[in-house]
């Protein structure tokens, strides 16, 4: 073996990050292929590559059998094997050197091609291992090219595929533009690792909040659920066990700086941040923000709720094309039926159920009524005294 090949192995190990053992295995496999192809040999052979002394040797391998040999290229009788070494037994493997005189010259080109292929495969393996660990993570990429269905984003060592279905409809992508993408899947193919990315996946929103909000990254604030209609509007529920931390305020940031930064990254997508609660009444009411909620009736059996809102906020609660209600239902995992206050009163479900409401009124005793009237009277007398004092003061000043 020439010193040039040794130098090449060292260089590949440093530049490509491929271990020398992998490269040696590739060369040995290449030399076996070259020997069989160029010398028209079908026997089982082994190539020994000695890096220490720089030699290449080819050994034929034959199985030791009893008396009958079916293929003399693959088998040898015990009698002949004992002539080579008296220690051989049936079932052993006999190795004999069969290195051709001009083997190095003839095999060089073939070996080079196979080595190149093995090196390429090793590189692909390293890339695959790198990106398979980054599934469900966010990366920076550069828009490289388009075709009829996909957009291709350069991630450095590999080109990722951004399918049309994973693109935000309102976004326009320009060549050489830098964008953040979410890795959804990494596949091993014959052409190398294939990375698929997304701009619409809810995981992208989650990772952006983890990058922008230290409280989420450190685990102080937890993202419980996300509902997203990419490019238009999203809702995110957050929670914390630390009473000194406001989970919603942490995500919004000073003057809305944190959430605005995320919105800008998503091409102006609006993000509603609500506080998560174990109580579905509170959680559903929060999820319908920015609408005001008067009451929430819960049906545990079919995980459905009936929400009562003021008449003037019915359209706000439902949202444009039902978007607010749809996102709230996806965020909470509960079915949501929204009723105006007027409709709810007509149906007898607000305030609460009519029977309960009437029973509550009957339970109010005379003392409570008197107390309320007395309080109202006292309030009226105090108001009159204040008005009298104000008039006296005005007169004194003008005298």
UniProtKB/TrEMBL annotation:
PROSITE patterns: KH_TYPE_1 (PS50084), S1 (PS50126). It comes from the Bacteria. InterPro entries: KH_dom, KH_dom-like_a/b, KH_NusA_2nd, KH_sf_prok-type, NA-bd_OB-fold, NusA_N_sf, S1_domain, TF_NusA. It is found in: Cytoplasm. Coiled coil: none annotated. Residues 358-399 are annotated as: Disordered. Residues 358-390 have a biased composition (Acidic residues). NCBIfam families: NusA. This is Transcription termination/antitermination protein NusA. It comes from Sporosarcina jeotgali.
